[in-house]
């Protein structure tokens, strides 16, 4: 188990063009021990190092203000995986009310649940090329999941993200972690002047669930009918017992009078 060191928590980004990326290389460079990996929150001094890593990992050229936000704002969950004093992995997520999500993501939760629910949005997840396929991505995602499944975060009902439709390593990674495809977003990304399609992936926590389909409603009412049917059978049985008891008492009294 990696160490989880709680430095001053600082992180954040508010950009619609953020890509969640988890790349896999054929080359597998094992760590000495996963116990040597330390998790800590980003701090302002990490800005230059994080910027260099993100420029390598992601096809989007983020503005400097984005890096200032994710290394200094406490509004977001930004966690680094550190090995030999260097950042080798990073996850950035935002926790916000479901009512504030963008229009394309409104169908993640049922309307009745969404009125009071929060959701977690993974803006970025990346691992240094030299340390991929060592479980670092899973370590970072597990840390976020653990953070959002505490009693204090019970209002968070779903975690979702966007990724390029061509980012097969990321899709494989999230599907393996029980994220499911929610929607297709044509031309969602603008990368170097070209429109790129995206996917929305989601997983549910703390009792959250997707909006019901017609089949879900049918199953629900069928279950209700089965329950009601069992209740009716029980009530009829009780009435029959009472009628038999009353008839027996009446017959006994009639025989006594004779």
Automatic annotation (TrEMBL):
<dbReference type="Pfam" id="PF00583">
    <property type="entry name" value="Acetyltransf_1"/>
</dbReference>
<protein>
    <recommendedName>
        <fullName>N-alpha-acetyltransferase 60</fullName>
        <ecNumber>2.3.1.259</ecNumber>
        <ecNumber>2.3.1.48</ecNumber>
    </recommendedName>
</protein>
<dbReference type="InterPro" id="IPR045141">
    <property type="entry name" value="NAA60-like"/>
</dbReference>
<comment type="similarity">
    <text>Belongs to the acetyltransferase family. NAA60 subfamily.</text>
</comment>
<dbReference type="GO" id="GO:0004402">
    <property type="term" value="F:histone acetyltransferase activity"/>
</dbReference>
<feature type="domain" description="N-acetyltransferase">
    <location>
        <begin position="37"/>
        <end position="221"/>
    </location>
</feature>
<keyword id="KW-0156">Chromatin regulator</keyword>
<dbReference type="GO" id="GO:0120518">
    <property type="term" value="F:protein N-terminal-methionine acetyltransferase activity"/>
</dbReference>
<dbReference type="InterPro" id="IPR016181">
    <property type="entry name" value="Acyl_CoA_acyltransferase"/>
</dbReference>
<keyword id="KW-0159">Chromosome partition</keyword>
<dbReference type="InterPro" id="IPR000182">
    <property type="entry name" value="GNAT_dom"/>
</dbReference>
<keyword id="KW-0012">Acyltransferase</keyword>
<keyword id="KW-0808">Transferase</keyword>
<dbReference type="GO" id="GO:0000139">
    <property type="term" value="C:Golgi membrane"/>
</dbReference>
<dbReference type="GO" id="GO:0007059">
    <property type="term" value="P:chromosome segregation"/>
</dbReference>
């Amino acid at each position: 188990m990696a160490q989880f060191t709680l430095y001053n928590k600082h992180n954040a980004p508010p950009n619609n063009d953020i890509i969640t990326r988890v790349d896999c290389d054929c080359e597998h460079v094992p760590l000495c021990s996963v116990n040597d990996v330390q998790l800590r929150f980003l701090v302002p001094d990490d800005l230059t190092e994080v910027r260099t890593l993100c420029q390598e990992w992601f096809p989007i050229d983020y503005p400097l203000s984005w890096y200032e936000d994710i290394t200094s704002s406490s509004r977001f969950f930004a966690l680094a995986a550190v090995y030999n004093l260097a950042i080798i992995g990073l996850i950035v997520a935002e926790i916000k009310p479901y009512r504030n999500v963008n229009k394309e993501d409104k169908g993640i939760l049922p309307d009745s649940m969404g009125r009071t629910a929060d959701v977690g949005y993974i803006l970025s997840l990346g691992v240094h090329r030299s340390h991929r396929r060592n479980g670092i991505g899973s370590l970072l995602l597990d840390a976020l999941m653990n953070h959002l499944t505490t009693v204090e975060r019970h209002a968070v009902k779903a975690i979702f993200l966007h990724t390029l439709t061509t980012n097969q390593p990321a899709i494989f990674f999230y599907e393996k972690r029980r994220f499911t495809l929610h929607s297709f977003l044509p031309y969602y990304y603008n990368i170097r002047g070209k429109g790129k399609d995206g996917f929305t992936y989601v997983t549910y926590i703390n009792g959250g669930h997707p909006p019901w389909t017609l089949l879900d409603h049918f199953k629900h009412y069928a279950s209700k009918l089965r329950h009601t049917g069992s209740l009716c059978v029980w009530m009829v049985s009780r009435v029959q017992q009472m009628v038999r008891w009353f008839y027996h008492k009446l017959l006994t009294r009639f025989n006594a009078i004779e």
